Amino acid sequence: MALSLFSPLPLRGLTLKNRLVVSPMQQYTAPDGLVGNWHLVHLGSRAVGGAGLIITECSAVSPEGRNTLFDTGLWNEAQVAAWQPVVQFVQEQGAKIAIQLWHSGSKGSHRHPQQGFTFLPPAEGGWLPKGPSPVPLDNGLVAEAMTLADIELVKADFVAAALRAVQAGFDAIELHAAHGYLFHQFYSAMINHRTDAYGGSFDNRIRFLVETVQALRQALPAAMPLLVRLSVVDYSDDPRAWQLADGVRLSAVLKEHGVDVVTASGGGFVPVDPTAVFPSYQVPMAEKIKAETGIITGAVGMITEPAQANAIISNGQADLVLMARELLRDPYFPLRAARALHLPTEIPVPYKRAF
User: Fold this and answer.
1) Of 80, 95, 113, 251, which has fewest CB within 10 angstroms of its CB?
2) Is 235 a residue of the active site?
Protein backbone atom coordinates (compact mmCIF):
# COMPACT_ATOMS: atom_id res chain seq x y z
CA MET A 1 0.00 0.00 0.00
CA ALA A 2 1.37 3.41 -1.00
CA LEU A 3 2.39 5.73 1.79
CA SER A 4 0.62 9.04 2.23
CA LEU A 5 0.90 12.14 4.39
CA PHE A 6 -1.50 10.42 6.80
CA SER A 7 0.31 7.09 7.08
CA PRO A 8 1.56 6.33 10.60
CA LEU A 9 5.31 6.36 11.22
CA PRO A 10 7.00 4.26 13.93
CA LEU A 11 9.91 6.05 15.58
CA ARG A 12 11.66 4.02 18.28
CA GLY A 13 9.07 3.75 21.07
CA LEU A 14 6.64 6.16 19.40
CA THR A 15 4.19 5.89 16.58
CA LEU A 16 3.28 9.16 14.90
CA LYS A 17 -0.32 9.13 13.68
CA ASN A 18 0.71 10.97 10.50
CA ARG A 19 3.77 12.51 8.86
CA LEU A 20 2.82 16.17 9.21
CA VAL A 21 5.12 17.98 11.62
CA VAL A 22 4.87 21.45 13.13
CA SER A 23 8.28 22.96 12.46
CA PRO A 24 9.95 24.93 15.27
CA MET A 25 9.02 28.62 15.18
CA GLN A 26 10.38 31.10 17.71
CA GLN A 27 7.71 33.17 19.42
CA TYR A 28 9.84 35.50 21.59
CA THR A 29 7.23 35.40 24.35
CA ALA A 30 9.07 33.62 27.18
CA PRO A 31 10.74 35.98 29.68
CA ASP A 32 13.16 34.05 31.90
CA GLY A 33 12.73 31.12 29.50
CA LEU A 34 9.26 30.38 30.87
CA VAL A 35 6.43 29.30 28.60
CA GLY A 36 2.87 30.24 29.51
CA ASN A 37 -0.61 30.64 28.11
CA TRP A 38 0.66 31.76 24.71
CA HIS A 39 2.52 28.49 24.20
CA LEU A 40 -0.35 26.43 25.54
CA VAL A 41 -2.66 27.94 22.92
CA HIS A 42 -0.06 28.21 20.14
CA LEU A 43 1.13 24.60 20.36
CA GLY A 44 -2.16 23.22 21.64
CA SER A 45 -4.16 24.57 18.71
CA ARG A 46 -1.81 22.86 16.26
CA ALA A 47 -2.31 19.60 18.15
CA VAL A 48 -6.09 20.07 17.93
CA GLY A 49 -5.51 20.82 14.25
CA GLY A 50 -4.27 17.31 13.61
CA ALA A 51 -0.47 17.42 13.34
CA GLY A 52 1.26 14.13 14.09
CA LEU A 53 4.32 15.67 15.73
CA ILE A 54 4.85 19.12 17.19
CA ILE A 55 8.41 20.37 17.65
CA THR A 56 8.71 23.31 20.00
CA GLU A 57 10.65 26.42 19.15
CA CYS A 58 14.35 26.21 19.92
CA SER A 59 14.79 26.16 23.70
CA ALA A 60 18.07 27.18 25.25
CA VAL A 61 20.06 24.82 27.45
CA SER A 62 21.52 27.73 29.42
CA PRO A 63 20.86 31.46 29.84
CA GLU A 64 23.88 32.21 27.62
CA GLY A 65 22.51 29.86 24.97
CA ARG A 66 19.66 32.21 24.13
CA ASN A 67 19.42 34.59 21.23
CA THR A 68 17.15 37.00 23.13
CA LEU A 69 15.91 37.36 26.69
CA PHE A 70 12.52 36.09 25.49
CA ASP A 71 13.52 32.65 24.19
CA THR A 72 12.16 29.52 25.83
CA GLY A 73 14.54 27.48 27.94
CA LEU A 74 15.01 24.28 29.87
CA TRP A 75 17.85 25.03 32.26
CA ASN A 76 15.90 25.01 35.55
CA GLU A 77 13.05 23.30 37.35
CA ALA A 78 10.64 26.23 37.00
CA GLN A 79 10.86 25.80 33.23
CA VAL A 80 10.12 22.08 33.59
CA ALA A 81 6.96 22.90 35.52
CA ALA A 82 5.92 25.50 32.96
CA TRP A 83 6.31 23.06 30.06
CA GLN A 84 4.35 20.22 31.71
CA PRO A 85 0.77 21.46 31.08
CA VAL A 86 1.66 22.34 27.48
CA VAL A 87 3.09 18.87 26.89
CA GLN A 88 0.12 17.20 28.55
CA PHE A 89 -2.46 19.10 26.50
CA VAL A 90 -0.71 18.36 23.21
CA GLN A 91 -0.53 14.66 24.03
CA GLU A 92 -4.20 14.58 25.06
CA GLN A 93 -5.04 15.57 21.48
CA GLY A 94 -3.27 12.50 20.09
CA ALA A 95 -0.16 14.34 18.92
CA LYS A 96 3.43 13.71 19.98
CA ILE A 97 5.66 16.56 21.10
CA ALA A 98 9.42 17.04 20.85
CA ILE A 99 11.47 19.83 22.35
CA GLN A 100 14.15 21.41 20.20
CA LEU A 101 17.23 22.01 22.36
CA TRP A 102 19.61 24.71 21.27
CA HIS A 103 22.54 26.99 21.95
CA SER A 104 22.91 30.10 19.81
CA GLY A 105 26.68 30.37 20.27
CA SER A 106 28.14 33.53 18.79
CA LYS A 107 24.72 34.56 17.45
CA GLY A 108 23.44 35.17 20.99
CA SER A 109 22.49 38.25 23.01
CA HIS A 110 20.04 40.25 20.89
CA ARG A 111 17.20 42.60 21.68
CA HIS A 112 13.64 41.48 21.05
CA PRO A 113 12.76 41.56 17.32
CA GLN A 114 10.26 44.33 18.02
CA GLN A 115 13.16 46.35 19.44
CA GLY A 116 15.28 45.90 16.32
CA PHE A 117 16.98 42.56 17.02
CA THR A 118 20.30 44.37 17.47
CA PHE A 119 23.09 43.21 19.76
CA LEU A 120 22.24 43.51 23.46
CA PRO A 121 25.41 44.50 25.32
CA PRO A 122 26.28 43.18 28.79
CA ALA A 123 25.58 46.60 30.29
CA GLU A 124 21.95 46.25 29.23
CA GLY A 125 21.42 42.68 30.42
CA GLY A 126 23.07 40.83 27.58
CA TRP A 127 26.37 38.93 27.44
CA LEU A 128 29.42 38.52 25.25
CA PRO A 129 28.66 35.42 23.17
CA LYS A 130 31.08 32.56 22.67
CA GLY A 131 31.54 30.32 19.65
CA PRO A 132 34.15 28.06 18.08
CA SER A 133 36.28 31.01 16.93
CA PRO A 134 36.41 34.78 17.38
CA VAL A 135 33.98 36.34 14.90
CA PRO A 136 32.85 39.95 14.58
CA LEU A 137 29.64 40.95 16.35
CA ASP A 138 27.52 44.08 16.21
CA ASN A 139 29.01 47.30 17.61
CA GLY A 140 32.55 46.20 16.80
CA LEU A 141 32.72 43.48 19.47
CA VAL A 142 34.16 40.04 18.80
CA ALA A 143 32.78 36.75 20.10
CA GLU A 144 35.06 34.80 22.40
CA ALA A 145 36.45 31.45 21.31
CA MET A 146 35.21 28.61 23.51
CA THR A 147 37.79 26.82 25.59
CA LEU A 148 37.81 23.04 25.95
CA ALA A 149 36.23 23.55 29.37
CA ASP A 150 33.48 25.64 27.76
CA ILE A 151 32.78 22.83 25.28
CA GLU A 152 32.51 20.26 28.07
CA LEU A 153 30.17 22.55 30.00
CA VAL A 154 27.84 23.04 27.03
CA LYS A 155 27.71 19.29 26.38
CA ALA A 156 26.74 18.81 30.02
CA ASP A 157 24.11 21.54 29.67
CA PHE A 158 22.54 19.66 26.76
CA VAL A 159 22.42 16.43 28.75
CA ALA A 160 20.89 18.18 31.77
CA ALA A 161 18.28 19.89 29.59
CA ALA A 162 17.44 16.62 27.87
CA LEU A 163 16.87 14.93 31.22
CA ARG A 164 14.59 17.83 32.21
CA ALA A 165 12.70 17.24 28.96
CA VAL A 166 12.12 13.64 30.03
CA GLN A 167 10.91 14.95 33.40
CA ALA A 168 8.53 17.37 31.64
CA GLY A 169 7.02 14.48 29.66
CA PHE A 170 8.28 15.23 26.15
CA ASP A 171 8.08 12.36 23.67
CA ALA A 172 11.28 13.16 21.77
CA ILE A 173 14.20 15.56 21.56
CA GLU A 174 15.57 17.45 18.58
CA LEU A 175 18.98 19.10 18.52
CA HIS A 176 19.06 22.37 16.58
CA ALA A 177 22.30 22.01 14.64
CA ALA A 178 21.38 24.38 11.81
CA HIS A 179 20.81 28.00 10.83
CA GLY A 180 24.13 29.38 11.99
CA TYR A 181 23.80 28.42 15.65
CA LEU A 182 26.45 26.77 17.82
CA PHE A 183 26.67 23.24 16.37
CA HIS A 184 26.54 24.65 12.82
CA GLN A 185 29.24 27.17 13.75
CA PHE A 186 31.47 24.25 14.68
CA TYR A 187 30.92 22.05 11.63
CA SER A 188 31.12 24.82 9.03
CA ALA A 189 34.67 25.89 8.19
CA MET A 190 33.28 29.33 7.35
CA ILE A 191 33.06 30.03 11.07
CA ASN A 192 35.25 27.38 12.71
CA HIS A 193 38.91 28.37 12.41
CA ARG A 194 40.16 26.31 15.35
CA THR A 195 43.39 24.33 15.20
CA ASP A 196 42.66 21.92 18.07
CA ALA A 197 40.66 18.67 18.16
CA TYR A 198 37.45 20.60 17.36
CA GLY A 199 38.69 22.35 14.23
CA GLY A 200 40.36 21.75 10.89
CA SER A 201 39.31 18.39 9.46
CA PHE A 202 35.75 17.27 8.81
CA ASP A 203 35.91 14.78 11.69
CA ASN A 204 37.19 17.45 14.06
CA ARG A 205 34.55 20.01 13.08
CA ILE A 206 31.67 17.56 13.60
CA ARG A 207 33.17 16.27 16.86
CA PHE A 208 31.22 18.63 19.17
CA LEU A 209 27.86 17.60 17.69
CA VAL A 210 28.74 13.90 17.58
CA GLU A 211 29.98 13.86 21.18
CA THR A 212 26.80 15.63 22.31
CA VAL A 213 24.70 13.05 20.45
CA GLN A 214 26.65 10.24 22.09
CA ALA A 215 26.13 11.75 25.54
CA LEU A 216 22.41 12.23 24.95
CA ARG A 217 21.89 8.76 23.56
CA GLN A 218 23.58 7.33 26.65
CA ALA A 219 21.50 9.46 29.04
CA LEU A 220 18.08 9.20 27.40
CA PRO A 221 15.63 6.30 27.59
CA ALA A 222 16.33 3.83 24.79
CA ALA A 223 12.78 4.24 23.44
CA MET A 224 13.03 8.04 23.15
CA PRO A 225 13.69 9.29 19.60
CA LEU A 226 16.52 11.74 18.97
CA LEU A 227 16.19 14.10 16.03
CA VAL A 228 18.66 16.58 14.54
CA ARG A 229 18.02 19.57 12.30
CA LEU A 230 20.97 20.28 10.01
CA SER A 231 21.90 23.04 7.65
CA VAL A 232 22.83 20.65 4.87
CA VAL A 233 24.30 23.50 2.81
CA ASP A 234 25.62 26.95 3.70
CA TYR A 235 24.18 28.63 0.57
CA SER A 236 27.51 30.41 0.08
CA ASP A 237 30.15 30.59 -2.65
CA ASP A 238 32.86 30.69 0.02
CA PRO A 239 35.26 27.78 -0.71
CA ARG A 240 35.06 26.85 2.97
CA ALA A 241 31.27 26.54 2.87
CA TRP A 242 29.46 23.38 3.96
CA GLN A 243 28.19 21.44 0.94
CA LEU A 244 25.47 18.84 0.37
CA ALA A 245 28.05 16.03 0.27
CA ASP A 246 29.16 17.12 3.76
CA GLY A 247 25.56 17.06 4.96
CA VAL A 248 25.07 13.53 3.63
CA ARG A 249 28.30 12.39 5.26
CA LEU A 250 27.36 13.93 8.62
CA SER A 251 23.88 12.38 8.45
CA ALA A 252 25.43 8.93 8.04
CA VAL A 253 27.63 9.52 11.10
CA LEU A 254 24.68 10.72 13.15
CA LYS A 255 22.66 7.63 12.19
CA GLU A 256 25.56 5.45 13.31
CA HIS A 257 25.47 7.14 16.72
CA GLY A 258 21.75 6.72 17.33
CA VAL A 259 20.06 9.71 15.71
CA ASP A 260 16.66 8.67 14.37
CA VAL A 261 15.66 11.59 12.13
CA VAL A 262 17.53 14.28 10.23
CA THR A 263 15.64 17.32 8.96
CA ALA A 264 17.41 18.83 5.97
CA SER A 265 17.41 22.61 6.09
CA GLY A 266 20.06 25.11 5.04
CA GLY A 267 21.78 28.44 5.51
CA GLY A 268 22.38 30.60 8.54
CA PHE A 269 25.47 32.68 7.89
CA VAL A 270 24.71 34.62 4.71
CA PRO A 271 21.49 35.86 3.08
CA VAL A 272 19.97 33.29 0.72
CA ASP A 273 19.49 34.36 -2.90
CA PRO A 274 15.70 34.94 -3.19
CA THR A 275 15.68 33.27 -6.61
CA ALA A 276 16.84 30.04 -4.95
CA VAL A 277 13.76 29.95 -2.68
CA PHE A 278 10.69 28.35 -4.27
CA PRO A 279 8.13 25.67 -3.33
CA SER A 280 9.85 22.50 -2.06
CA TYR A 281 13.29 24.01 -2.75
CA GLN A 282 15.00 22.02 0.02
CA VAL A 283 13.21 18.72 -0.57
CA PRO A 284 15.94 17.32 -2.88
CA MET A 285 18.41 17.57 0.01
CA ALA A 286 16.20 15.40 2.22
CA GLU A 287 15.72 13.01 -0.70
CA LYS A 288 19.47 12.61 -1.23
CA ILE A 289 20.17 12.05 2.47
CA LYS A 290 17.39 9.45 2.65
CA ALA A 291 18.63 7.65 -0.46
CA GLU A 292 22.31 7.60 0.49
CA THR A 293 22.12 6.94 4.24
CA GLY A 294 18.77 5.26 4.89
CA ILE A 295 18.07 7.54 7.84
CA ILE A 296 14.52 8.82 8.36
CA THR A 297 14.39 12.32 6.91
CA GLY A 298 12.26 15.40 7.28
CA ALA A 299 11.68 17.83 4.42
CA VAL A 300 11.12 21.52 5.05
CA GLY A 301 10.92 24.75 3.09
CA MET A 302 8.05 26.45 1.24
CA ILE A 303 5.68 23.50 1.61
CA THR A 304 2.17 24.95 1.67
CA GLU A 305 -0.28 22.75 -0.26
CA PRO A 306 -1.88 19.39 0.60
CA ALA A 307 -1.02 17.71 -2.71
CA GLN A 308 2.53 19.06 -2.57
CA ALA A 309 3.07 17.70 0.94
CA ASN A 310 1.48 14.36 0.14
CA ALA A 311 3.62 13.89 -2.98
CA ILE A 312 6.82 14.27 -0.95
CA ILE A 313 5.78 11.23 1.10
CA SER A 314 4.16 9.16 -1.64
CA ASN A 315 7.15 9.69 -3.96
CA GLY A 316 9.56 8.58 -1.25
CA GLN A 317 11.45 11.87 -1.17
CA ALA A 318 11.22 12.14 2.62
CA ASP A 319 9.51 10.45 5.55
CA LEU A 320 8.17 13.56 7.28
CA VAL A 321 6.95 16.94 6.07
CA LEU A 322 7.68 19.91 8.33
CA MET A 323 5.64 23.06 7.90
CA ALA A 324 6.13 26.45 9.56
CA ARG A 325 4.51 29.54 8.06
CA GLU A 326 1.53 27.66 6.62
CA LEU A 327 0.77 26.28 10.08
CA LEU A 328 1.03 29.80 11.50
CA ARG A 329 -1.60 30.87 9.00
CA ASP A 330 -3.77 27.81 9.49
CA PRO A 331 -3.39 25.65 12.64
CA TYR A 332 -5.96 23.26 11.16
CA PHE A 333 -4.08 22.61 7.92
CA PRO A 334 -3.81 18.86 8.65
CA LEU A 335 -7.61 18.52 8.91
CA ARG A 336 -8.06 20.56 5.73
CA ALA A 337 -5.37 18.55 3.95
CA ALA A 338 -6.95 15.21 4.83
CA ARG A 339 -10.24 16.39 3.42
CA ALA A 340 -8.62 17.74 0.24
CA LEU A 341 -6.71 14.49 -0.29
CA HIS A 342 -9.72 12.29 0.56
CA LEU A 343 -7.70 10.59 3.26
CA PRO A 344 -9.04 9.59 6.68
CA THR A 345 -8.09 11.47 9.80
CA GLU A 346 -9.66 11.87 13.20
CA ILE A 347 -11.64 15.08 13.67
CA PRO A 348 -11.87 16.35 17.29
CA VAL A 349 -15.41 15.70 18.48
CA PRO A 350 -16.19 19.35 19.29
CA TYR A 351 -15.19 20.32 15.72
CA LYS A 352 -16.93 17.57 13.76
CA ARG A 353 -19.93 19.72 12.89
CA ALA A 354 -17.59 21.89 10.79
CA PHE A 355 -16.44 18.92 8.70
Assistant:
1) 113
2) no
